[in-house]
Write a structure and sequence with these properties.
heterodimer, A: 726 residues, alpha+beta, 7-stranded mixed β-sheet, 24% strand, globular, B: 225 residues, Rossmann fold, 11 strands, 21% helix, 26% strand
Chain lengths: 726, 225
């Protein structure tokens, strides 16, 4: 078959790329080989536009066992315990088919984690939808939430945290990022690197069908008006089979049978076999007749490109097949030796006793294209908003506007659809700054959270990148955890557009600077480009998933006020930065100016000292101050509590709007007992932490002296309205 | 006290209930669904989860599994049987308990802490609770909407076969305190002999102050006698 330019383009490859393929092969590829190149060389699998920038991220540290490049990152939490985690996007499929797209996003990220020998212990997600009023938003939200729940609930891993945001930038391209966290023994981590010649390559799990063919290529292109036609490329999830696969794999991992193991995710059998061979410097030969197929007459092309879910590839030690098969038989799963490792350094594909395709591994992996795409720096758009020019409003009305907005509304409509409690180790659930998961049978725990700040990143990517890392770090500190490492999911528009590429590069620089300063390395992640439709790109939306350690658990620290008449301390300085704030956006539809500046030194110092106070058991409750400012953070604490607050007016910053709604960074609210105040003030002063005594807790009412007084009950009602009327 | 937890493919609360039973000093064994013989047990637990993916109908396939004949035999000879969540659904599929669990009224999976009231505390499962005690307990299900015919419902009431009803913090049993649409807020029922209890809420999730509360503990200590 002659490969025409049209066929090349249909495979998502550029003509120049096709020319390099011919050069690498010294001949024209056949259709099967072209399909394999398209699967490996697309943006989703090859990271061709992002790779040179990703290299700059800090990935090392005392706590890091495995950084990026494996199925997931691995960190050390002491006592031979390791935490394995990663976040991944499933944006494109979820827009086309929200339930299955989201469900298989969860399934895929879970496989990445248990492939490494970890039992998954928590799921999180970051989901972004278009404007609440957009015709599609509600049905997409409904589908995505059901899909996430449908998969996680069935497999029995608690979904413990996440964020749900709305912004018209996602009208035609929603974001669905799923994060999984697992626990493994440090000396029992499994990797994907193949080793040894003539070792059995085993296919386990579900059968292969025609679903998801070219899914990865779809995820590497912009949407257009025909996107709906791409439905057949979305995979269908089967959480029941994944549960069996997980249990079977974890059972097999108890002994020493496995040399290497890799899940079949994007680009299925192709990327898993190439990845294993390329890391091991080996070749791999597959007999495709042996691949368990769900449908009749499947061609090698279809088998190699199918993205059917719940499948794994394992390379076994000699003589272990029999025992391994027994385990998979017990779980009623397919277990078939479909090939072997070779010394040819080639991917060799046989079907009907004939070689149907043969490609040097390096052509698919290390020689895949890498682009240093052009990018331009964002010019800072300084613009100070003068409140005097704006229509006068009351503080109370401004607060209500924020709390009733879907972005700030109580999300229990969503989180009640997720089983958060299964596995019986969830100590702090969704709705907190971070979730707390106890390590099973131990008296330590991890805290996990995901964050993003698309408005900040859009207005000034460098600061935005820094800010999300810092906010994520603060969320962990707020529940008393020492932040250890992050995973990131980088959702951006079209990298061939210089501005978009600029957003990517600068966000990444911001992330890098913050991670370096905070000793908060990146251990895994995923890049999702081409988020947009018909040249309209989404706001740059890097999502950060962070993991922290609570060495000794006593009781989980949350942001519910605990006592009447406790002292409230605000940590960190309030300058009153209103540009890019929730306040201006919700009340005046103003989106101008720069995001609040990040002072990494203060961020680190404030965080470390707050953590110290928490560890000394001096804090009753704590909450980080983020979008919506001080007043929103206080309201959030009151809404979930029996107690409200009585806050004094500020002594220094006289503009109340700036003081209460400003989004200055590195701030926390701490509830403490009066008796501990002198001790705490001493620690803060000795460590140069700026703080203010802002008021006290009181029964039932949220009050700013002389300005407003609302009952907690009313706040609760306001905060729940949107979803109640869903 | 010897207990056995039946593990189906897709069970996912099996570990949780196993941990709870051991913590409460039961001598527990996990029994794989392909077994055809049960070890001697004083209590058999059918745990929560999605047995066989719940693909046909919740609990339907598990109700026809190899091990289930043994469970029925044990039940008929008076062994104590506890079905939690999917376990309750399976018990109704086997006919050991009458009635059925329909989809939640709001057609969504529901996970949250709710209150239930102990209606009958004179059973092997509930004797350590006080009559009408209100306990806070976690539910997590798609199909927990209990339904049965009028005759059975009358019998349940008249013979004190309702174990728990959903209520609010003050103990009010009404539509507002009914999370899933269950008939008369029923959260758990006994069979005629009261040796079988099926319940949608998860007592195994309520045995640890650090994670939740200890409201589930009395169910286990009741069984220990």
């Amino acid at each position: 078959m002659k490969i025409s330019n049209k066929i090349v383009e249909k495979h998502g490859l550029k003509i120049e790329e096709y020319e390099s393929i011919k050069k690498l092969l010294n001949r024209q590829p056949n259709l099967l080989e072209l399909g394999i190149f398209s699967a490996m060389w697309n943006e989703h699998c090859s990271y061709k536009s992002s790779r040179i920038h990703l290299r700059k991220l800090p990935t090392k540290g005392k706590q890091v066992i495995q950084g990026p490049g494996e199925n997931a990152g691995v960190i050390d939490i002491g006592d031979n315990d390791a935490i394995v985690f990663k976040i991944e996007s499933h944006n494109h499929p979820s827009y086309i088919e929200p339930y299955q797209g989201a469900a298989t996003g969860v399934g895929g990220i879970l496989r990445d984690v248990f492939t490494m020998g970890a039992r998954p212990i928590a799921l999180l997600n970051s989901i972004h939808f278009g404007s609440p009023d957009h015709t599609k938003t509600k049905s997409l939200l409904n589908g995505v939430v059901s899909g996430i729940g449908g998969y996680g609930n069935c497999i029995g891993i608690p979904t413990v945290g996440g964020e749900t945001k709305f912004n018209e930038t996602y009208n035609e391209n929603i974001l669905v990022n799923a994060m999984a966290v697992g626990h493994a023994n440090k000396d029992k981590i499994f990797y994907s690197k193949a080793k040894g010649l003539n070792k059995s390559v085993v296919y386990v799990g579900s059968k292969t069908g025609r679903d998801g063919i070219h899914g990865a290529s779809m995820a590497s292109a912009e949407f257009d008006e025909n996107s709906e036609e791409k439905k057949p490329t979305v995979q269908v999830g089967d959480p029941f089979t994944e549960k069996l696969l997980m249990e079977a794999c974890l059972e097999l991992m108890k002994d020493n049978s496995i040399i290497s193991i890799q899940d079949m995710g994007a680009a299925g059998l192709t990327s898993s076999s190439v990845e294993m061979a390329s890391k091991g410097g080996l070749g791999i030969e597959l007999e495709l007749d042996k691949v368990p197929c769900r449908e009749e007459n499947m061609t090698p092309y279809e088998m190699m490109l199918s993205e059917s879910q719940e499948r794994m590839l394992i390379i076994l030690e000699d003589g272990k097949e029999h025992n391994a098969k027994k385990i998979f038989d017990k779980w009623d799963l397919d277990f078939v030796v479909i090939g072997k490792t070779t010394n040819t350094n080639k991917l060799t594909l046989k079907f009907n006793n004939k070689i149907q395709g043969e490609i040097p591994i390096e052509a698919l992996a290390s020689k895949a294209p890498i682009y240093d795409r052009k990018w331009i720096k964002k010019k800072p758009q300084k613009k100070e908003i003068n409140l005097k020019d704006l229509k006068k409003i009351k503080i109370e009305d401004a607060l209500i506007k924020i709390l009733s907005n879907p972005n700030h509304s109580n999300k229990s409509w969503i989180t009640n659809q997720y089983d958060q409690s299964v596995m019986c180790d969830t100590a702090l659930k969704s709705g907190s700054d971070a979730a707390i998961i106890r390590i099973h049978n131990k008296d330590k725990a991890i805290a996990v959270t995901v964050d993003s700040s698309a408005y900040y990143c859009k207005s000034y990517p460098l600061t935005g990148g820094k800010q999300i890392v810092c906010e994520n770090w603060r969320n962990l500190i707020s529940v008393g955890a020492k932040p250890l490492a992050i995973t990131n999911c980088l959702n951006f528009g079209n990298p061939e557009n210089e501005e978009i590429m600029g957003e990517f590069v600068e966000c990444l620089t911001g992330i890098k600077q913050a991670c370096e300063f905070l000793d908060y390395p990146v251990v895994s992640g995923n890049v999702s480009f081409y988020n947009g439709t018909n040249k309209k790109n989404i706001y740059p939306t890097p999502v950060i998933g962070g993991v922290g350690l609570i060495k000794k658990i006593t009781k989980p620290l949350d942001h519910n006020f605990k006592k009447n008449n406790s002292n409230l301390i605000l940590i960190g300085k309030t300058f009153g930065h209103l540009e890019q704030s929730c306040f201006l956006r919700e009340n005046y539809s103003i989106n101008d100016g720069l995001p609040p500046e990040i002072n990494l030194k203060n961020e680190k110092n404030n965080g470390e000292i707050v953590l110290k106070l928490i560890e000394e058991d001096l804090i009753l409750s704590s909450h980080d101050v983020s979008d919506g400012g001080l007043i929103t953070a206080l309201a959030e604490m009151s809404i979930v509590s029996k107690y409200g607050v009585k806050i004094q007016k500020p002594k220094k910053l006289t503009n109340l709007f700036k003081y209460f709604f400003g989004e200055d960074q590195a701030r926390y609210i701490l509830e403490i007992e009066a008796i501990n105040l002198p001790k705490i003030e001493k620690v803060l002063k000795n460590n140069d932490v700026y703080y203010e005594n802002i008021g006290f807790t009181q029964k039932d009412y949220f009050e700013i002296e002389g300005e407003l007084k609302i009952s907690n009950k009313d706040l609760f009602k306001i905060n729940n309205e949107w979803y109640n009327n869903f | 006290m010897r207990s056995s937890v039946i593990v189906f493919p897709g069970s996912n609360c099996d570990r949780d209930i196993g941990v709870a039973l051991e913590k409460m000093q039961f001598k527990n064994q996990m029994i794989w669904h392909k077994e055809t013989r049960l070890p001697k047990s004083d209590l058999i637990v059918i745990p929560g989860g999605f047995s066989y993916g719940d693909y046909l109908r919740s609990g339907a396939i598990a109700g026809k599994s190899l091990i289930i004949d043994e469970v029925i035999r044990a039940a008929n000879s008076g062994c104590l049987i506890l079905g939690i969540c999917n376990g309750f659904q399976i018990l109704t599929e086997t006919g050991l308990l009458k009635g059925t669990l329909l989809r939640n009224k709001n057609l969504k999976f529901i996970n949250k802490d709710v209150q239930i009231k102990v209606l009958n505390n004179k059973t092997k499962f509930t004797n350590k609770y006080k009559k009408d005690q209100i306990i806070k307990i976690n539910i997590a299900h798609n199909e927990g909407n209990f339904f049965t015919d009028l005759l059975h419902l009358e019998k349940l009431s008249n013979e004190n076969l309702i174990a728990f009803k959903y209520c609010d913090e003050k103990g009010n049993i009404n539509e507002n305190s009914n999370p899933n649409g269950s008939l008369e807020n029923i959260a758990g029922i006994f069979n005629d002999n009261k040796n079988i209890l099926g319940m949608m809420p998860h007592p195994e999730r309520m045995i640890d102050e650090f994670i939740s509360n200890k409201d589930g503990v009395n169910l286990f200590t009741s069984l220990l006698g």
